[in-house]
Design brief:
The complex is a heterodimer of chains A (304) and B (355).
Chain A lengths: L1 E16 L2 E15 L4 E5 L6 H8 L7 E8 L10 H4 E4 L13 H11 L6 H14 L5 H6 L7 H13 L5 E5 L7 H18 L2 E6 L2 H7 L2 E6 L2 E7 H6 L4 H9 L3 H7 L3 H6 L11 E4 L4 E4 H8 L1
Parallel strand pairs in A: 3-7, 3-8, 5-6, 6-7, 9-10
Antiparallel strand pairs in A: 1-2, 1-4, 8-9, 10-11
Chain B lengths: L4 H13 L22 H6 L5 H23 L29 H37 L1 H16 L2 H11 L7 H10 L3 H15 L2 H8 L4 H37 L10 H10 L8 H29 L1 H25 L3 H13 L1
Helix pairs in contact in B: 1-3, 3-4, 3-12, 4-5, 4-7, 4-8, 4-10, 4-11, 4-12, 5-8, 6-7, 7-10, 8-10, 9-10, 10-11, 10-12, 11-12, 12-13, 13-14
The chains are: A alpha/beta (304), B mainly alpha (355).
């Protein structure tokens, strides 16, 4: 089993406009652990740094500073070319993440062959069928021969999950895996992820902007705002008892039929009581495990 | 797409007989796939059959067959006889030149020479543009900047004058077919490289490329297996364009007397016709056939290219389908207005649905 320890992860992007250069800090000193059988949810609006963290974890980008330590149970670090065997990702858009030119079999077979999970054509095919059956794609034999445009969004996302698990990955990063799907099939895909997690002892990082599925699906929630974690803790505590202004705003922004009724029948009534956005301070973080506020700079000073 | 099945088979059949210059060539090895296997991706790459495409394919096929088979059926193109400058007759179908050579025999050999050079330059220019366009765009960063600077430099160099200078500079003895082909390829790859670069930049940023890199694919496999198939229509179109440009460029060079020294092409035929005063003497059978072959071959390839363009830019195809639908609807309306029997109406509706 593999676990991931992220410490003070920071990513800066350099923006050029003419001769002026400005630095944009997309992710600022974010720390968390991914351990087998547990799901951590990263919640935040667009541009809060969720997807950047996914890119850093999958090594599509290099961190500016901070550490990502992936290690096995016996604490041997996972490095170099085997990294991808352990950490895999499910992309947001199932319509873009499968190559329209290739069959489903190709998508699942390639990671098997690259990571030497199978060694000849027959065993690869058998394994592909097995993988497709595991993600509830039936009849797997026929689906393996199809091409992405012949499948529905939910089916494609299942193929993407099968592809991610094909190398034998133990850490799965799911970057908004259901946001592009019909509401009616979202739960099916999430339940599938949950079942695979239990069966394979996966550590899952679930990236989303949807608080409801975050609570349903994850054990721990990290709320990101402008690159910093502003609230963290067990899923229920964060959703039911939000402390940080931004988390409250997120919770209020989610449509809730009961609340709308109490405010006077309109959504605008509910929106009016949201705290002003400019005043939100992302330098403090409420940690539900500590039961106290932590300042980003304090944390650093405390360690030093 | 449902109605193109049989037509595509026909197209593949013609392709098989005319191997070199046809762009849908790669599709020809599809039937090797196991029976019952879906071939939708290949089908997406094939242009749908239209009258234009059919005309283009027929023109190109006829000229290619003439160039490949013709030289074996005609006599010696250089044989001199005493029937100089005679018009078309039973003995000489396309007449004779000033020195009594058979124009048809010359035309067959010249067509073969022109096709040869077109194919050579087409392949060379496509390979060059694919390397600089696709590889550079995939690597990104400094390599991309350098490759793109290089293709920009080649783009602004005026092609024909440079070709003339280089061809004039190389001594006549060593100016073979390959020299001319390399010179033409070097001056014509840049524009395609830019098109391919733009297309690669777009494909490269798609999620499936990131996903394949994430699953540990080696760079050459990402380029060759994940990116390249999605660029095939563009590559085919650039190849066809390069062939047209090469044949025209070579004809221009040969006409100026700067062509390959020991070969006969359509350009050299025109060159000798010009030198033999074919125009003032009214010997139209000497210069019209080579000119016509060049024009028809260029036209055929262009028609094929328009069909390939429809794959690259489906909006063109949608516009055509919409026009056809509107026309069919108008026809139906007219028919129902004149009050003919209902069965014809349902039949055409069924056809419409099948489309």
């Amino acid at each position: 089993m593999t676990s991931v320890h992220v410490t003070d992860l920071t990513k800066d992007y350099t923006l050029r406009s003419g001769l002026r250069r400005t630095r944009l800090r997309a992710v600022d000193r974010v720390s968390f652990d991914l351990v087998p059988r547990r799901t951590v949810a990263l919640v935040g609006e667009s541009g809060s740094g969720k997807s950047t963290i996914a890119k850093l974890l999958t090594r599509m980008e290099k961190p500016t500073s901070g550490r990502i330590d992936v290690q096995l149970d016996d604490r041997t670090p996972v490095m170099g070319s085997v990294y991808q065997r352990h950490v895999q990702m499910v992309f947001q858009d199932p319509f873009a993440s499968l190559n329209p030119f290739h069959t489903i079999e190709h998508h699942v077979a390639r990671p098997l062959r690259i990571h030497h999970r199978t060694h000849d054509a027959a065993s690869t095919h058998a394994r592909v069928v097995e993988m497709l059956q595991r993600v509830n794609l039936e009849p797997a034999e026929q689906i393996a021969l199809r091409r992405p445009h012949e499948l529905s969004g939910g089916q494609r996302q299942r193929v993407a999950i099968a592809r991610a698990l094909a190398p034998g990955a133990q850490v799965l990063i799911a970057d908004e895996p259901v946001s592009m799907l019909d509401v009616s099939i979202r739960l099916g895909v999430l339940n599938l992820l949950g079942r695979l997690q239990r069966e394979d002892n996966l550590a899952v990082l679930y990236i989303t902007h949807d608080l409801a599925t975050a609570r349903h699906f994850s054990d721990e929630i990290l709320v990101l705002y402008r690159g910093r974690v502003v609230e963290r803790g067990p899923a229920d505590a964060v959703i039911l008892d939000p402390h940080h202004d931004y988390t409250k705003l997120l919770a209020l922004a989610a449509p809730d039929p009961e609340r709308v009724g109490s405010v006077g029948g309109t959504r605008r009534g509910a929106a009016r009581e949201l705290p002003a956005r400019d005043g939100i301070d992302n330098s403090v973080c409420y940690d539900h495990d500590l039961g106290d506020w932590v300042h980003v700079d304090d944390r650093e000073r405390a360690r030093a | 797409m449902t109605n193109i099945g049989p037509d595509v088979q026909v197209a593949a059949g013609t392709v098989a007989t005319t191997p070199p210059t046809d762009p849908p060539e790669p599709a020809a090895d599809v039937p090797g796939a196991p029976a019952g296997r879906p071939r939708a991706a290949w089908r997406m790459l094939l242009p749908s059959m239209t009258p234009w495409l059919a005309t283009g394919l027929v023109l190109v096929a006829v000229i290619v067959v003439f160039g490949v088979v013709g030289p074996y059926l005609v006599g010696d193109p250089d044989a001199i006889s005493d029937t100089g400058l005679s018009g078309p007759s039973a003995e000489h179908w396309l007449g004779t030149t000033q020195t009594g050579q058979d124009v048809l025999a010359q035309l067959a050999h010249a067509t073969r020479g022109s096709l040869q050079i077109g194919l050579m330059v087409g392949v060379l220019a496509t390979v060059l543009s694919a390397f600089f366009g696709i590889y550079g765009a995939y690597l990104g960063g400094f390599a991309d900047e350098a490759f793109s600077l290089l293709s920009n430099v080649f783009l602004v160099i005026p092609g024909l004058p440079l070709v003339i200078v280089i061809s004039g500079f190389v001594p006549r003895e060593s100016r073979g077919l390959w020299t001319i082909a390399v010179v033409l390829a070097l001056t014509s790859w840049a524009a395609s490289a830019r098109v391919l670069r733009a297309q690669t930049l777009s494909v490269r940023s798609r999620d499936y490329v990131a996903a394949s890199r994430l699953s540990g694919e080696k760079p050459w496999r990402v380029i060759g297996v994940e990116i390249l198939p999605n660029l095939l229509p563009v590559l085919a179109s650039q190849f066809v364009y390069a062939v047209i440009a090469a044949i025209l460029g070579e004809a221009g060079l040969s006409f100026l007397g700067l062509g390959a020294s020991n070969s006969s092409t359509l350009g050299t035929m025109l060159f000798y016709a010009q030198n033999g005063f074919a125009l003032p003497l009214g010997a139209w059978w000497w210069f019209v056939p080579p000119g016509l072959v060049i024009a028809l071959f260029g036209m055929g390839l262009s028609l094929i290219n328009f069909s390939i363009d429809e794959i690259i830019n489906p909006r063109l195809k949608n516009a055509r389908t919409a026009r056809r639908r509107a026309k069919a609807a108008r026809r139906r309306e007219r028919r129902s207005a004149t009050g003919t029997d209902g069965t014809a109406g349902t039949a055409s509706t069924a056809q419409e649905v099948a489309r």
